[in-house]
Design brief:
Helix content is 46%, strand content 21%. With 354 residues, it is α+β, with helices and mostly antiparallel strands. The protein starts with a helix and ends with a helix.
Length: 354
């Protein structure tokens, strides 16, 4: 049900913001805030215009029906407009759904090898390369925070940051268990094995989102180990931060200096606490319902990559694409998968509001 007064309020607010921005009397943070609000409204304003034009067109066509000379034309227009209106209303309803405040944020992603030994670590590496390529296609910046590599180009664990507007809004649907079915490089008999890796997607938190009290954390400095450059095992540069209230422990040793590792670890800790707050708020406000698509449940099996059949299946929306190579390359197939997940999530949220 479209509430026309709400649409008029949006138009009025957009006009007010445009006048303020064009007045030349505001600047700095206030201008940035207004610009961000207006850019969000700009996405829905054309839909609002189309809705009111269609409603007015229906009213005009109904009036024309009383004119014998225009009756046939009016009847045809009325039929076309009445058929178009439900689709316009559905698009508007989706556009008016409450936004996740974190959708515009960057992300911190964690990929961990699961069952399957070295093959699982190789698959974790494949997933990292997939998201790295995808991020580059989107014009986002990627930075590894922590990694535990294996001798065969895999990862037992890799934690990385993606900086880019809207990154969390798209990448959040990747959180969960990813499963692979293929013949491992280490398999001499040519048998297909199944292994898995887990992906966690956290919205990057800003300083204003989470305040961390110094008395609530302990920072330990130690000597780095493993891959990471010539500084490894030569300086006490690795950092471990323990957050007492939540029990969260974050380690970073990938950067060259203690200062850089501390900053990176604090970013991860802040994001973990931000996500914890968001989940608690979401559970409180939506106690009767959690979206299967957008829940972010890390223990849920969400996707299977089957190499013999060259297919990728997302189990949440029962979508199968025979574009395995393209998806693993972070190509258009991954966009297609994410777009379908976003659409399914929007429709589910819409159905629960009706």
């Amino acid at each position: 049900m479209i509430v026309e007064q709400k649409l008029k309020d949006i138009q009025s607010r957009a006009a007010d913001i445009a006048n303020q921005m064009n007045s030349g009397t505001i600047g700095g943070d206030e201008l940035t805030k207004l610009s961000k609000e207006y850019s969000r409204m700009a996405e829905i304003l054309p839909l609002i215009d189309e809705y009111f034009q269609t409603v007015q067109g229906i009213a005009d066509a109904n009036e024309m029906l009383s004119d014998p000379e225009l009756k046939a034309i009016a009847a045809q227009q009325l039929d076309e407009l009445k058929h178009a209106l439900p689709d316009i209303e559905k698009k508007l309803q989706i556009a008016l759904l409450p936004r996740d405040a974190a959708d515009d944020n960057g992300v911190i992603m964690e990929i961990r090898a699961g069952v399957g030994g070295e093959e699982s670590a190789l698959f974790a590496g494949d997933l990292f390369n997939q998201y790295k390529s995808y991020a580059m296609r989107q014009g986002w910046k990627i930075e590894i925070i922590e990694e535990t590599a294996t001798s065969l180009r895999g990862y037992k664990e890799v934690v990385f940051k993606i900086d880019g507007a809207g990154a969390f809004g798209r990448m959040k649907y990747e959180s969960g268990i990813h499963r692979v079915q293929r013949v491992p490089e280490t398999e001499a008999a040519g048998r297909v094995h199944t292994s898995a890796a887990s992906v966690a997607v956290l919205p990057q938190a800003k300083d204003i989102d989470v305040v961390i009290d110094d008395k609530d954390i302990r920072i330990d400095i130690f000597r780095a180990s493993g891959a990471g450059g010539q500084h490894v095992n030569k300086t006490d540069s690795a950092v471990r931060i323990t957050h007492f209230p939540s029990g969260i422990v974050v380690t970073c040793q990938n950067e060259r200096s203690q200062f850089q590792n501390k900053a990176a670890a604090m970013d991860v800790l802040r994001s973990k606490l931000y996500e914890k707050q968001r989940m608690e708020q979401q559970n409180a406000s939506n106690a009767s319902r959690r979206s299967m698509v957008g829940s972010g449940d890390r223990s849920e099996k969400i996707r299977t990559y089957n190499f013999p059949e060259q297919r990728v299946t997302d189990h949440r929306i029962k979508l199968t694409l025979y574009k395995l190579d393209d998806i693993l390359a972070g190509g258009n197939g991954l966009d297609e998968m994410i777009d379908a997940l976003i659409a399914a999530d929007q429709l589910e949220r819409l159905a629960n509001m009706e």
